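quick one, 318 residues, struct below
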Amino acid sequence: MALTPSPSRPMSPRPAPPQKPKKSAGPLIGLIVAGVLAVVGLGGAGVLFSKQGGLTAENSTHHAAASAAAATLGIAIDTNAPIVWSDLWNNINTAITTLKSEGERQTVRLNEAEAEIASASEALQKAQSDATRSAQQATELNTRLTELQASSAAQLKLSEEKLKAAEEKLAEAQQALEAAEARLAAASEAEATPMAEASTGSADDAQKAPDSTTESSKGQAAPEPAAKKQPSKKQVYEFPGPRNEVLRSATYDAARQTLKIELVDGAEINYREVPASVYERLSGGLPTYEVFFRMKVMGVYPADVDDKAAVRALGKSR
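---
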């Protein structure tokens, strides 16, 4: 609902107040100026006292700091005499400079020590790496040594078996040689018996013959006996193959009693003081002539070389 403003009333003029008599303002201004000056003076005094107190406190703080610094740096302070704080601060600065220089030197030494530690660490790592490689190599060598020992043991066992088999074959060959020698001796005796009987019969016939032959031969020159057949000075025998693995030929000098044996590899062995019977038996077609050579010739008669070494070298070369 709209409000209707009321009509304004005309204002009636107020009556003017009565005027008071005027007074002089000079004393009041003087009092105000005096009060202002008093306030300013008190404020300046307060400020001065405040600054002096602050300077005293700051000075006390500096003195305490100087005393603490001197005590920390080990600088003696004579409390019985007035302290010259400027000299004390100079001493403190000198001590601080000295400590700073010493600290720098200690820093350099520390850096050098760190570099040495780093170098030593690298050397230690290298030594550890070398030790690891050495351990690995030692392990590998131990493994190879174990394998070699096992292989050597196997080869040794095989060699022992071969040696045992060779000894058995040698024993069998020796028995065969002895049997062949026995048969040869028996054959020689059997051949010698008829020859002895024949020579005995010829002698008896010669005694029973008539003397006419003697008489008829009188006046004639007796026939010269036939020249005795001289054996050749050198005899050569070629050993048959292919079962022969050691001997190639044998040359015997009956006059000097020397026997030269040529091995299948071309090596020659000259024996001295060898009877003819040894050559005859060696070249008599024995089936075990190699065994006979090893047992009856090699190492028995003096030779110009080491015959055993020559035979061993032959065995290694095959």
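The helical segments are 26-73, 85-208, 212-216, 276-282, 289-297, 307-317.
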